[in-house]
What we know:
7-stranded parallel sheet, alpha/beta, binds uridine-5'-diphosphate
Amino acid sequence: MKSKPKSHRAPKQRSQTHKPVSVVTGAAGFLGSHLTDLLLKHGHQVIGIDNFVTGSVDNISHLAGNPDFKFLQQDVTEFLYLPGPVDYVWHFASPASPVDYLELPIQTLKVGSLGTHKALGLAREKKARFLVASTSEIYGDPAVHPQTEEYWGNVNTIGPRGCYDEAKRFAEAMTMAYNREHGVETRIVRIFNTYGPRMRLRDGRVVPAFIGQALSNKPITVFGDGSQTRSFCFVSDLIEGIYRLMMSGYDLPVNIGNPHELTMLEFAREIIAATGSRSKVIFKPLPQDDPKQRKPDITKARKLLKWQPAVPLAKGLESTIKYFRTRV
Ligand code: UDP
């Protein structure tokens, strides 16, 4: 697929003295808050938007009083009005753990569809560059392994994960439509499993679940026989890749993730060892449509963005475990 934007604007430099202005939707979430921190480090002014459905004020409380950070409590499925210039819109708002989107299927569909539409509308109005946080979930239970960006996926539209997968697939389609019809400069990142500080202990995802269980010496709940695989990327690596993508000139989807693949049983053992826990593994039923394998092909990111993950699992787990120790 080759995209043909109607117009291609060069990256804007509104004025030499002006700090770039970024809008981050989902700024109080796990990824949105880390992205906000990186943007502030790069000298951006950041307007964070969140409705706290799954985000937390704790993730942004360290930014209180920072003159470069403004926060707006709003649902991004409603019309977004912001005075003043905006250079970049980063659309990260969405429930993102299977447990969350099972509980919030309609909000998940709305933020991926209506929310993406509103965020794109804002980018168009402000002549800003737009990046959407898409996901490896658009590949569903993948028949191609590792997953390349050219693979179209294998998604059960009406299954329990369909609300997230289809919302994100719609978000990608809407993003390309704004690119082609309105000439908005757009970027699509497909995010693979990511972990790190600021994940919610009880969001149901495997990393906080296993670490929480291990730290309290409770049984580690491996779903199915634990042979399903995932590949975990540390959050600082992921955010760096996403930043580079936004600043690149490439408007088709790019996978960002860590290709180091392991089974969930191996991962459980890794967590037990890393925490020094007395926990034992127990097996629970595999949730419906749980993908059997997942590993990003990051050839594109390597070539286009000169990016690859730098934090090994052991190192990333160390800081994640340290964070969770203060929360169990
Ligand atoms: N998983 C598990 N035990 C748990 C939570 C998750 O074995 O307590 C498994 C889950 O079945 C899946 C993998 O870990 O195969 C990753 O699940 P997660 O919810 O983190 O996200 P997913 O990659 O499925 O979106």
